[in-house]
Write a structure and sequence with these properties.
With about 425 residues, the protein is α+β, with helices and mostly antiparallel strands. The chain is about 15% helix and about 35% strand.
């Protein structure tokens, strides 16, 4: 896949290069075509037509994509679940992957020929699925470790980055974004192998928590409004179990203190249980609420709010590839809204939050459940909502989420 933008090398020392590039998502040559008329501004999962929802989400993110091409992409996603479940993203050979909606092809990156052969074997079990394997130099784990070194470092590059570090799965590089004034002071000698420096303005993330989705209290579903110590506060993600204990998850930055009481957000308050742990660093933004109320502990079904009263089952836990369609079950400021807004994944990787483009969540949506919508009628839990652009429902919005595989690996997510 070629990049639409041209890169200008400023200097090279060994294999390290300082390069300038426009802050755009890499695209196929097909994106040079004129955009078809009346592409949807946003996509919402209403539980009625998954394929069309996924197609709409692609057209909202890729303005040049025709309705026919978008549906072809959606059908490819719908048929990919079995293949994806066969991939082991925890292996040291895993280097991420992406989906090209213009060609309806999957691309999987690995670091060894043996791993590439395993991917090809898995792909062959799903006739009609087009899967390309790419052998690359750096695993996702290695990229993540590089991200952390730059974030926590004190050298010139770390100071210039100011924490604005991510991963480009398509080029197998760590990307550091710096403003023009800091960019000019960097030389190739400051940039390690496998790191690309881009010039641009840092995007400010706004944590989506506030004190101001109330709904039924029949069960714990992704997307419900929660109360913290009696006050309306953040949203519920997914439910999970470990060692016989049931947990309700929300964002880590929503938790105030260990032991504080959490309850549902309805007028008739029903206690859920105490906060027992929270994480809020790097790509880990997760809070654990131990479900102690017998009314809820006896329930074993994992569910996702779709509207003010309807729900869909959680099929299972999964992970994201670049250009997957994710939807968010959280509607704190508009609990009566029908459907869940959907967006397209643009950045994934170890040590970074999953980034989606196409929807800007609102205050109180923190902790809500992001789920992969492949268009097959299934919904897979993938992340907890963390932050977005400042404001609410901003056009061409962006959102960041904490991937489930980044924390508490012993959790088994409840399904229906």
């Amino acid at each position: 896949m070629k990049h639409a933008n041209l890169r200008r090398c400023l200097a090279t020392v060994g294999a390290a290069a300082l390069v300038v590039t426009a802050l755009t998502v890499p695209a196929s040559a097909a994106q040079a075509k004129a955009a078809p008329a009346k592409a949807p501004a946003a996509a919402y999962d209403t539980g009625r037509n998954d394929l069309q929802t996924v197609a709409d989400a692609y057209r909202a993110s890729f303005k040049d994509l025709s309705p026919e091409a978008a549906l072809t992409a959606a059908r490819a996603q719908a048929g990919s679940a079995t293949f994806r479940q066969s991939l082991d993203v925890e292996k040291d050979t895993w280097a991420g992957g992406w989906f090209d909606p213009h060609t309806a092809e999957f691309h999987i990156a690995v670091t060894t020929p043996a791993a590439a052969k395993d991917v090809a074997t898995a792909a062959a079990r799903t006739p009609g699925l087009i899967v390309n394997t790419h052998q690359v130099a750096r695993s996702m784990r290695e990229l993540g470790e590089q991200v952390e070194r730059i974030r926590s470092g004190t050298d010139k590059l770390a100071k210039a980055a100011d924490g604005d570090v991510t991963i480009d799965v398509l080029t197998n590089e760590v990307v550091v974004r710096v403003p023009k004034t800091r960019f000019a002071a960097l030389s190739a000698a400051d940039v390690p192998v496998g790191v690309r420096v881009e010039q641009g303005t840092k995007v400010t993330q706004h944590l989506d928590a506030c004190t101001s989705r109330t709904d039924c209290d029949n069960d714990l579903r992704a997307g419900l409004v929660l109360r913290r110590s009696g006050s309306l506060w953040c949203s519920l993600g997914f439910t999970a179990r470990s060692n016989g204990i049931k947990w309700a998850l929300t964002a880590g930055h929503c938790v105030g203190t260990i032991g504080e009481s959490w309850s549902n957000g309805t007028a008739t308050i029903r206690t859920v249980g105490p906060a027992t742990d929270f994480l809020n660093s790097g790509n880990q933004d997760a809070g654990a609420i131990q479900v102690t109320n017998a009314f809820y502990t006896a329930q074993t079904a994992g569910r996702i709010m779709i509207g003010p009263s309807s729900f869909s089952p959680v099929t299972g836990e999964s992970f994201n590839l670049v250009n997957d369609v994710n939807c968010l079950s959280a509607s704190y400021t508009n609990p009566a809204r029908a459907g869940n807004p959907c967006a397209t994944v643009t950045e994934v990787g170890a040590a970074i939050k999953t980034k989606m483009v196409g929807y800007d969540p609102c205050g109180g949506d923190s902790g809500g459940g992001w789920y992969w919508l492949p268009g097959s009628g299934n919904r897979y839990a993938v992340a907890l909502h963390s932050s977005s652009l400042t404001g609410c429902n901003v056009a061409n919005g962006e959102a960041w989420a904490s991937p489930l595989n980044a924390f508490w690996s012993a959790l088994v997510y409840e399904t229906s």
